[in-house]
Amino acid sequence: MNSSSDVLVIGGGAMGLATAIELACQGAQVTVLSRNFQEAALHAAAGMLAPQAEGLEPGPMLDLCLRSRDLYADWTNQLTELTELETGYWPCGIVAPTYADSPARLAQDAEWCDRTTIHQYQPDLGPEVVGGWWFPDDAQVNNQQLAQVLLQAAEHLGVTLREGVTVTALDTKEHRIQHLQTTAGPWQAKTYILATGAWSQELLPIPVIPRKGQLCAVQAQTKPLHKVLFGPGVYIVPRQNGRIVVGATSEDVGFAAYNTPAGMQSLLAAAIRLYPPLADHPLEDCWWGFRPATPDEWPILGHSPYENLILATGHYRNGILLAPITARLISTLVVTGQADPVLQDFSWQRFAPSSPSPARLALAPS
Ligand code: GLY
Q1: Stretch 4-19: mean pLDDT, rounded?
Q2: Does the N-terminal peptide bond of residue 248 adopt cis geometry, omega within 30 degrees of 0?
Q3: In the chain, which end has fewer C-beta atoms inside a 10 angstrom radius, N or C?
Q4: CATH of 2-81+143-207+296-360, one of 3.30.70.20, 3.90.1300.10, 3.30.70.1230, 3.50.50.60
Q5: Separation of CA 45 and ligand 1 centre (Å)
Q6: pLDDT tens per residue, range 284-304
Q7: Pocket of ligand 1, candidates 249, 317, 320: which has the most ligand atoms within 8 Å of its Cβ, to mutate?
């Protein structure tokens, strides 16, 4: 039996690593078990930090996302201090052009731009763009760089990273996890954190399903864009080095691990309609990933039906954005046993309100 840690984190994506780092900073001995670091949704994203451009309704989810966005500058600075590596955090703001004539919604801390203004703000937008929002506080991070920084920071802090280990089952007794069954033998700890994203249902019957996103990137010689463009059905995210990431499809096709011609066609058509110069840059890369989607598209955070298992999963489109606040809330819960009141809104029990019993948790996933 492997049993060297206070905390075993299942899943080596943004949530698992960020939480492991926070716990290690607070003195906990932490092990992360990851079947494949490259598979995490972290790699599939474009790194937008876009609670406002995503158009989240006012309420607990928007509040959580705004809180996390506010943490980003300090969080990434601390990671850089630890590792001497840059995350590519860039508070560049997001322009959300539309093809509709008037603002479809009211947005706080945002500016509505008419046709003339938006084309001045962002030259070379498509001729069909008739207006749009400017969200100056939304931002981006380079998710590929962030993935490396999180791994390095975790190593630097003494977190044990076990890559290539798949957790196959939770062995339970009387509402507690006794140990984990894994492809590297059984593992035991005081506390377990489930951060397995789109794969969460393999271990627990919570309603988290994969929603595939296909993305691609072109490489510009100069830096033609200085803000993220978030248009209808597509976003275009310029990096500081001229690379431009285009995302993303949203497909309920299970774990279909490949790019498709139809997916790339729809993505590129939407991108070129929004920003025609994109058509002429060399296409550099295309890839896909699986967002962990819940029925209400909010994450599942905090206590589980098992006393010593904490949940940090189901972040859907906002995992990278929510990494710092998730790490803070979950590590505080683990270390102090005190649940921040905000966690109530993100409890697994919203999907099983009639019974907290593990036996009743097997609600049909949507
Ligand atoms: N965060 C945007 C996406 O998941 O496509």
Answers
A1: 93
A2: yes
A3: N
A4: 3.50.50.60
A5: 6
A6: 999 999 999 999 999 999 999
A7: 317
Q: What beta strand segments (E) does the chain contain?
A: 2-10, 30-34, 48-49, 94-98, 111-114, 131-135, 139-140, 160-163, 167-173, 176-182, 187-194, 209-219, 228-231, 234-238, 243-247, 283-293, 300-303, 309-313
Percent of the chain with pLDDT over 70: 93
Which CATH fold would you assign to the domain 94-136+210-291? Answer: D-Amino Acid Oxidase; Chain A, domain 2 (3.30.9)
Distance 108 CA to ligand 1 centre (A): 21
pLDDT at 236 over 70: yes
**Average pLDDT over every residue of 91-115:** 85
Cα 356 to averaged position of ligand 1 atoms, centre (Å): 32
For ligand 1, atom 5, the nearest C-alpha belongs to 248
